[in-house]
Amino acid sequence: AVLGAILINASILDRVALEESDFYNISHKEIYSAMRMIGSKNLDVLVLSEALERSGELDNIGGALYLATLVNQCPSAYNYENYVSIIQDTATRRNIIRCAEDLAKSAFDEQVNVSTSISSAMTSLIKSVKISGGAVRTSGYLKELYNEAEKRAENPQEIYGLQTNLHDFDKITHGLQRGEQFVLSGAPGTGKSLLALQLACGMATSGHAGVVYELEMSGMAVLRRQVSAISKIPTDNIRSGKDMNIKWHDFVKAIEKVEKLPIFISEESNWTTIEMRADIVKLKQQHNIEWFIVDYMGLLSDRYGDDDLIRQAYISHQLKAIAKDLNMAGLTLQSVTKAGYSNPSMANVSGPTAIHHDADQIAILSESEDIPNVIELRWEKMREGRCHGLIKLVFEPDLPSLQCYTEEESNKNDYNDWTN
Length: 420
Known about the structure:
The protein is α/β, with parallel strands linked by helices. It contains 18 helices and nine strands. A nine-stranded mixed beta sheet has the order 3-2-4-5-1-6-7-8-9. Strand 7 (374-382) and strand 8 form a beta hairpin. Helix 2 (26-38) crosses helix 3 (45-54) and helix 10 crosses helix 12. It starts with a helix and ends with a helix.
């Protein structure tokens, strides 16, 4: 019916979002493929018949007589959208059955890596999902924009995203924004993980649940840092036990405080973006999480092509899609090249330029050249708001914690007095 409708009205070809693989019948696959090659402008039964004859497929599909039959047996070209919908639905169902059969086969074969099979099946299932709606008039978005502005005008707030409680950071970003991807980069030792986890605790303290995918450190190490920062007990003391008896009360209070935070942590090192998306969807449904952190992008296990830059571009696209599609605030850590050690700029963020394009914000950490124990966080990209912002953060002595170093404080002469 679909093929007959196209032959009756060739312009329908430009309005049909079908793939060759959506057709079950091999002959129909060949006919539709030939139609696409010809294009709607020149398509008719005669041209299609000649094209199939040149490719040697005309006899295989039943000859010119079968093409004429398609036209004669088409109930109505006006109902082509319903015919297309039926084909898409059955194609999706076939793909689900195929994926289930492949998974069952893998489950029985002990030589097969089951995790890889699951990831492959999830990718196939996601690709089989058809777009529920196309482009719409701008009036729909403008109405949404108007309602948002009206609601904000009733109660103006400087922080309209997810508040991190790091004042200078929130002042520039207005909080981490849902649906956006924030890339935090910097040379080793500049405190990327430390800052990310501190932002996580800040958002959780503000009532925003989230998940941390810690691919580099253990979950114990992550929590040790946070307990140390809150209790003001150096991590060395917690690990060695030195002076802990006299500080035990503070330690327990910090444990209790961190325990109440709505933060989920995974220390698994073999996550793929497909598996991560599924986990985030589950956590969002069960615990209403609003943000995710990936530490760091380069350690994700996605396999995509033989070129590592292509693989990283794919990972970047997937992480951006997770933030956008699920309306989550995404914070991803990424390294810099060796050139970035001395020249911390967006151009020296490791990986393909796709990372630069996908990110809504990019900020880079580097050591201050003027003040000891101070690092600078400089914005290199921001889709909305003030770009090239700069804040200074100071390491608390012997503690895994960062505090804002304001312009007012930077005017003080005695740095030791300030830290005290």
